[in-house]
Queue: 2 jobs
Job 1
Amino acid sequence: MPIRSEPPLVSPPTPVPTLDELEIEGNVGKIAPDKLRWMPSFPADTPAEVLRNEFETNGVVHVKGVIPREYFETMAETGILKEGTDPTLGIFCGGNPTDFVSADTAKYVDDNPVAKRHIALVFEAVQSDWAKAFCENEHILNFVHKFKPDWAEPFCFKRQIWRSNIPNSEGSTTGVHYDHIFLRGGPPIALTAWVPVGDVHPLQGGLIYLEDSIPVARKIEDGFTAQGRAKGFGKEDALSAFNSNMGVAGMLSRDAGEFQAQYAEGRRWMVANYEAGDVVFHHSFSIHASTTNRDPDGVIRLSADLRYADREHPYDDRWDRAPYHAGDGL
Ligand SMILES: O=C(O)CCC(=O)C(=O)O
Ligand SMILES: [Fe+2]
């Protein structure tokens, strides 16, 4: 797939606003500009030691220009896209947002036939050869080797997640979490590649990362472990992201601003302007969340979360049993 160097735009490019102008929202409200900073980004040819150092100290590395893009064609059949627009632009049809819930919120959908069709297609897509090849593409794997030089046989978990986050869908942001909450069946060494598919500018509801968050996450996780021990948790409960110590859907908070006020000790949320081809690599203890998609042109935020581990190191094999499906308990 070719890298699209000149994205065809439906309207003049949205200028990237300054931090003061940004209106970044969680599920509850706006995050003040002084609680935000820009996330550094690194060109794809940055020396591996520099990338690794950033990964180990800051927990997240935004790498520019890693891979090609293209996915929206497969979604056109769901009716999610505006008729007559180029599917690769991902323009939302403007319909009822709850008809197009993301695959990860599928568990909350009961009898909505439109939503069911959309979800069925998403599940079909994640099982396709195309999605598998995407997950295993050499561009990302090259970087997995850079971040994890001691991994002999890196692989991508079968359970990869594709998310379509539509504009102005209230209460649908990904809550605050670190990935190890969901990957407790292995040590906290799994590597996540969060892949914006198409450009995701700061108002389009992409991920925000808490600066220097690894120590914060470790402390929280140690607290959960201690609480579990005190309650006499068995193995299954101890590994579960949904045990009685955890918040709704395993999240630390449903709102980035609220979490920050409570736990961040002055750390800011890092926002970024993601462009097609970029990949963000993050540590299992990197704290992140998504924001509300307020794209002025109605563009859907499409992204994939791909997670990597090594056959020669212990890993959470619950994630490698089957492709993502609703009700898989993870
Ligand atoms: O894209 C999202 O909203 C969440 C992604 C995520 O949490 C991850 O890739 O680890
Ligand atoms: Fe995550």
Job 2
Amino acid sequence: MNRKFEGKTAFITGGGSGLGEAIAKDFALQGANVVIFDISVENGKRIEEEIQSKGGHALFTEGDVKNSKSVEECVAKAFDKFGTVDFLINSAGILRDGLIHKLSEEKWDLVMNINLKGSFLCLKECSKRWIEAVKNNRKEHIVDYPDKRVINISSIASEGSIGQINYVASKAGIIGLTKTAAMELIRYNIRTHAIMPTLIETPILGDVLEKEDGKWRKYYEGRIPLGIGKPRYVSDAIQFLCSEDSWFMNGVILPINGGRLGPL
Ligand SMILES: NC(=O)c1ccc[n+]([C@@H]2O[C@H](COP(=O)([O-])OP(=O)(O)OC[C@H]3O[C@@H](n4cnc5c(N)ncnc54)[C@H](O)[C@@H]3O)[C@@H](O)[C@H]2O)c1
């Protein structure tokens, strides 16, 4: 079988659950070495073992995306183990919802630090290494440098969502971060994209879809023409953005919207 990412390395933050877990497993199936960077040791180890038991190459690194020292250490482990990173996929994220007048400063800071600052810190750490390699081996054309991809996970919620001001601000911030990185880094053959998924059924939702006799499940099923999403729909789009098929694209902000245009 011709596997898309044979010999490539994907560094996936939040790779221990939900979207990150699906991405890690799918990239491993496509031949990639997969680095799972997560704060949850239990989940990270579970995914690492699952991938290895199927003959894939996986490394779990325990870390906290909002802590620069921790990011530095985990990125260093990935480069040491696999030689480089080809795809940085920033999937670590949390929700701490609340209405504006009730939301604590702690919840604001935590969400911004994990969702937005965490994406910046990982981008910074990988870019530092990628740029250094380019500067040590100058080429005439951009495309002659190693092809690197960064995929950030924004959300349809970046367009506005009641009770989620911290989350929305962090996900809108990711769009600005992505566009800036796309402009700044393409000279090194680094392409940066963001995806904006609609509601996807993963552990981040807690019991939202089950509580009140499934009231919210019915509500979202009514709002999303193609239904509540599955993690593999996101993984498929990310595989496209990391593949040869999208090599001529940069700074794409891709909605994965289940058929719905506009806010949920
Ligand atoms: N599920 C959805 O409906 C949806 C929709 C749009 C965007 N997103 C975004 O997709 C991303 C993944 O979400 P998910 O649905 O897979 O959630 P999830 O809760 O299943 O997975 C998030 C992962 O991030 C990890 N994590 C949390 N804080 C961390 C930290 N400080 N350092 C390292 N790892 C940390 C968690 O341990 C977990 O493994 C998030 O950024 C989320 O905002 C999700």
